[in-house]
Amino acid sequence: MTYIAKPKFHHPGLPKNELGYTHRDYEGKISTLCAGCGHDSITASIIEACYELSIEPHRVAKISGIGCSSKTPDYFLGNSHGFNSVHGRMPSVLTGANLANRDLIYLGVSGDGDSASIGFGQFAHSIRRAVNMTYIVENNGVYGLTKGQFSATADRGSKSKKGVMNTDNAIDLVAIALQLGASFVARSFSGDKTQLVPLIAAAIRHKGAAFIDVVSPCIAFNNHAGSTKSFDYVREHNDAVNRLDVLTGRDPITVDYAPGTVQVVEQHDGTRLALRKIDADYDANDRLAAMTFLQKHAAKGQVVTGLLYVDPDSEDLHTHLDTVETPLNTLEAKDLCPGSAALEKINASLR
Amino acid sequence: MPVQSPISSVNDFVVRFANVNGSGSASANELFARSILRHGVPVSPRNIFPSNIQGLPTWYEVRVTEAGHLGARGGVDMMVAMNPQTWDKDVASIEPGGYLFYDSTKPMPTSKFRADINVIGVPLTAITNSTYTDPRQRQLFKNIIYLGALCALLDMDPKVVEQLIGEQYKGKEKLLSSNVHALHLGRDWALQNLKCPIGLQVKKSDKVGDRIFMEGNSAAALGAVYGGATVCAWYPITPSSSVAEAFTSHCKKLRHDPETGKAKYAIVQGEDELASIGIVIGASWNGARAFTATSGPGISLMTEFIGLSYFAEIPAVIMNIQRAGPSTGMPTRTQQCDIIACAYASHGDTKHILLFPEDPAEAFEFAAQSFDLAERLQTMIFLMLDLDIGMNHRLCRPLKWDDARQYDRGKVMTAEMLDEPGRDFGRYLDVDGDGIPYRTYPGTHPTKGSFFTRGTSRDRYARYSEEGAVYADNMQRLVRKFETAQDMVPRPLQANAAKPTKYGVIYFGSTAPAMDEAIGLLEARGHQLDRMRIRAFPFHSSVASFIADHDFVYVVEQNRDGQLRQLIVNENGIDPVRLVPILHYDGTPITARFIANAIGDHQDHLKVTPLRKAVS
Q1: How confident is the model at residue B609 (pLDDT cuts 50, 70, 90)?
Q2: For testing the chain B interface, which of A75, A79, A320, A350 should be mutated: the one with the most B CBs within 10 Å?
Q3: Closest by Cβ to A324, choosing from B264, B277, B446
């Protein structure tokens, strides 16, 4: 993270979205990550997705833990509140923030060290609670800030920069998210902006726990021969299940999408997600099939990317808690305090 | 007949029930305490229970106290010995001339009794077995039968007990009638076969007044409701679990939107303490009033987040229901042993605000106030209860609420404020010189007032910085804020002795009722002491003045190391020799007898020994 802000000057002819915002309005401070870091590409995709969705930047709360990935919220949506919490605890902080104000958009950014090790429990429980959020793991399989130790997502048999072989099995966060009941599960690659931007956009519009695992090579410590999280390895082993576009309610599907080649997913908020299938038999509404598909391709050493599962009838934690529509943080004493008369009754019951 | 004269006392004695955990005795024993209360006689009951679901020994002690002493007294005047496992210990604890009530179905050898006590045998098992066939009924109703026998022995009005049973089983007529039947089974047997009443008797009185009978945990939870808490995240741990459970129960009754029926609160049972405090901090950061309840081991787990709360200046409330530590310690025994751990929780230089309520009424008031303090000061507030207040019913003054009271949301800038001409928003700017900066809630303004919250060092505008001067500036402001808090937290309460004295005593929290009684015992021994009950940390300036005004001040607390004393010495730079620790830490509630003996002996010693030697 940095305190260096980007120059305010920008070209007056920059294109604007429906709200009149340009890309610059979705940017943050200058990144201090290594040049070429996959995380910066994800940052660019988040900016692009928010621009395309015409989100008011200040209506997003961006929350992270500790680590390279967790620095990135400083580099996008500069007019949003950010929270760089403690290592691996982003999910609980995000859950609390979400409970306080259900009207904001919650973007949780984490890393593989953050989410698959110290925060594995919090990752799991925030998913199973169906917190309405977009949970992005910037996954490079390595600890960058502490210079190159394996993380829990490093594949067994992969090598570190120092040539050490990883003998531990890897945690596949996508498989775990599916198993835990996430209602939106996707995997992408930081270098595939075409795929990643609509995935992020769809996840933001999704109501419930949306999880995206983004393989994001660490240019300094995990982009070498022997790594399974390097640019070259992922490009060679990437198997995209679908290509997607997000169509908002303001953009109805046109006849350009030929019947039989597009699967339209109705989301809870009315957003329609169009999947252009590559595998003719892939059904993104079938959790069990997604799990099987993932395992089958993992056994072949393939990195499956794309939208693996979405539940069009998803619910979120507020639904489960049956909370009022008004954000809890706006309720005042008159809404919350039962008053002296009620207290007198309570006193009477305690005698 | 014992050589010792039987104890004879009206409305002033201690009855202890020795039971087996899980035998269903708790409700019968509590019914006994409530019945005496309905006679207009104050009681002070205490659960003494194991960290176990079933099978281990459990005790319930009822101090009947017309004088209204609400601390533990020590000693037992009547033991209702229903647990063979603890028989010897139970019999040994009876005061000379006291009474042993037991199940005489099976004959006991005389060696199992004491010559100086009065033995009352009631064939409870025989009575029960001749009436009930179902094993569970036999177990449960045996408890009501001994309650009935006690009614006769202590001359209690059975109608009072019947009325309470009626309230308990309202709408469940079958249960109501069967319990009343069992009550009379025991009472009738006692009246027909024993000399009733005995020396210990309950006579109707009017000493309860309008006081209420409540557990501290429930009161604190109600305080959270009245204080405007909307988010509660917690993880079960004894003795704090009943705070969250009570909050849930209170919210269900008091916090639903009348039109939609939807909840104006969110309660999440976290996966652990770390998640619970994380949820609280996230919610507070986003402008909701949030709290968690835990105990010492939970505090240990939360300390990383507590440090974040302190440094990033995020409001939060932790209700710490203390139990005996360290480590797992004695999970179901009381202590005041987390003072230092909470005052300086987390790594680096921290100072946290602690509130020490003495009873359920103050637990309610301080709990409600803690949310105002947390938001005003933008920091963590610890409400420091303990098992003795939290899980025992206490008589206390009725709860009160001023309907004109508004919540103090602290320094929060709105969009309108941010748009004011010349307004300079810096998240950590000390605009008012009190060390408290302004904050904004997420989503407030399209282009102004957003900031990045982090646990790493930053400048006054929340920009990351590792500059030493910037860091020191921030840390100094945090000290200023803590100094500001001194005049915002509840002040200590002081009471002077009847005669001028060179000696004082400081105490806090659940020690208060025992201390109130101990003062009288000490006066009877000829010792005069001024007293001060500390109600919060940071310490008000009057604490240092009080110590300066006395040659020696006793600091009474329920831990091994004199943690409050350490804190006073550390924060006020006081010569430790002038603070004499009076420490009680075996897990049982401190008693007036203990305090009076410890201070009294020390005072006696001072009369014959040079001062330096006495306290060295």
Answers
A1: low
A2: A350
A3: B264
Tell me how far apart the alpha carbons of residues B298 and B95 are, in angstroms, rounded to a whole number: 39
Q: Which residue has the tokens 């990033």?
A: B312
- pLDDT exceeds 90 at position A3: no
What is the rounded end-to-end Cα distance, in angstroms, of chain A?
A: 59
Specify which of A161-175, A310-324, B159-173 reaches the highest per-range mean pLDDT: A310-324
How deeply is A6 buried, as exposed, middle or buried, from its count of CB atoms within 10 A (0-12, 13-18, 19+)?
Answer: middle
For residue B225, give how far its alpha carbon lies from the nearest alpha carbon of chain A (Å).
7
Residues of chain B contacting residue A103, judged by C-beta atoms under 8 Å apart: 443
Of B306, B297, B301, B292, nearest to B350 by C-alpha is: B306
Q: What pLDDT does residue A251 have?
A: 44
The reported pTM is 0.93
Question: Shortest Cα distance from A143 to chain B (angstroms)?
Answer: 19
> Looking at residue B67, what is its pLDDT?
95
| Cβ–Cβ < 8 Å for B223, B365 | yes
Render pLDDT for B584-594 as a digit per residue (tens, 0 to 9).
Answer: 999 999 999 99
Q: What is the pLDDT of residues B53-91, one digit of tens each?
A: 778 899 999 999 999 999 999 899 999 999 999 999 999
CA distance B512 to B525: 20
Nearest-by-Cβ selection for A56 from B257, B278, B446: B446
Return d(Cα B65, Cα B282) in angstroms, integer: 47
**Interface check B443 vs A, CB under 8 A:** yes
Asked if B214 is an interface residue toward chain A (Cβ–Cβ < 8 A), one would say yes
Rounded CA Rg of chain B: 27
Q: Is B263 on the interface with A (CB under 8 A)?
A: yes
A97/B286 Cβ within 8 A: yes
Is the Cβ pair B263, A58 closer than 8 Å?
A: no
Give the phi and the psi of residue B183 in degrees, each rounded to 5.
-60, -45
User: How near does any CA of chain B get to the CA of A73, in Å?
Assistant: 9
Q: Answer yes or no: do A336 and B228 touch at CB < 8 A.
A: yes
Position A258 scores a pLDDT of: 41
Instruction: Give the contacts of A241 (CB within 8 A, at least 6 positions apart).
Output: A277, A278, A279, A282, A284, A293, A304, A305, A306, A307, A308
Mean pLDDT of the residues in chain B: 95
Is the CB of B412 inside 8 Å of chain A's CB atoms? no
- Of B226, B453, B456, which has the smallest distance from its Cβ to A338's Cβ? B226
Burial of B410 (0-12, 13-18, 19+ CB in 10 A): middle
B49 within 8 A of B112, measured Cβ to Cβ? no
Beta bridge partners of B79: B16, B100
A4 — pLDDT class (breaks 50, 70, 90): low
Q: How far is A102 from chain B (nearest CA, A)?
A: 10
pLDDT of residue A218: 83
pLDDT band, residue B257 (cuts 50/70/90): very high
Whether the Cβ atoms of residue B231 and residue A328 lie closer than 8 Å to each other: yes
Contacts of B266 in chain A (CB under 8 A): 99, 317-318, 321, 323, 328
Report yes or no: B226 and A343 within 8 Å, Cβ to Cβ.
yes
Check if B44 contacts A (Cβ < 8 Å). Answer: no
Can you tell me the distance from the alpha carbon of A264 to that of A271, in angstroms, rounded to the nearest whole number?
A: 10
Q: Report d(CA B228, CA B358) in Å as an integer.
A: 22
In tens, the pLDDT along B448-484 reads 999 999 999 999 999 999 999 999 999 999 999 999 9
Q: Name the range with the highest mean pLDDT among A6-20, A107-121, B164-178.
A: A107-121
Alpha-carbon distance of B9 to B199, in angstroms, equals 6
- Taking only the tens place, the pLDDT of each residue in A173-198 is 999 999 999 999 999 998 889 999 99
